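A reminder from the course coordinator: this example appears on the midterm review sheet, so study it carefully.

Given structure:
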């Protein structure tokens, strides 16, 4: 039987991690974070798919493709967190658990980062934990999952 899948979604600019602003986002690259998340998922019998895009529509398509297929979604939506009602609506149409993930803690930063349109849909928000947030978010997603069989 196929292993259940967690979809990890990374939004705009997260491909730049490790390159700039290490005082906010640390020195790990996005590939480092994905490897840590995949390792934790696989330890617990799940596969991990990852998509990073700088384009809102690509992220929405990925969420649609997860419907009735993946056990859960872990999403760091980048700045789309704070204003993308299109992303909100796509996530609202997803039936499984959603975990919101941020490397920094947006609530401790500029006021425009204090709003999250994803938070009301998420079973949990992991924020401000740096690299440690990735495996933690996977643990929460797995605990909340009711895996599809195929
Ligand atoms: O803390 C997070 O994980 C964020 O989701 C990161 C977003 C930011 O807009 C959110 O408010 C919080 C930014 C993505 C990364 O942007 C970079 C820009 C330059 C260099 C490295 C990363």
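Designed residues:
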């Amino acid at each position: 039987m196929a292993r259940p899948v967690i979809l990890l979604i990374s939004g705009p600019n997260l491909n730049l991690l490790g390159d700039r602003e290490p005082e906010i986002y640390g020195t790990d690259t996005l590939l480092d974070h994905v490897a840590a998340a995949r390792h934790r998922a696989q330890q617990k019998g799940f596969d991990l798919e990852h998509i990073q895009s700088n384009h809102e529509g690509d992220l929405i398509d990925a969420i649609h493709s997860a419907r009735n297929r993946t056990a859960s979604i872990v999403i760091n939506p980048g700045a789309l967190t704070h204003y993308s009602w299109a992303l909100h609506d796509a996530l609202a149409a997803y039936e499984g658990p959603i975990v919101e993930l941020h490397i920094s803690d947006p609530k401790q930063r500029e006021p425009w980062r204090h709003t999250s349109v994803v938070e009301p849909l998420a079973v949990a928000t992991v924020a401000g934990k740096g690299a440690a947030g990735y495996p933690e978010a996977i643990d929460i997603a797995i605990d909340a999952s009711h895996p599809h069989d195929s």
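Helices lie at 22-25, 30-43, 56-66, 85-92, 133-144. The chain has one domain: 5-145.
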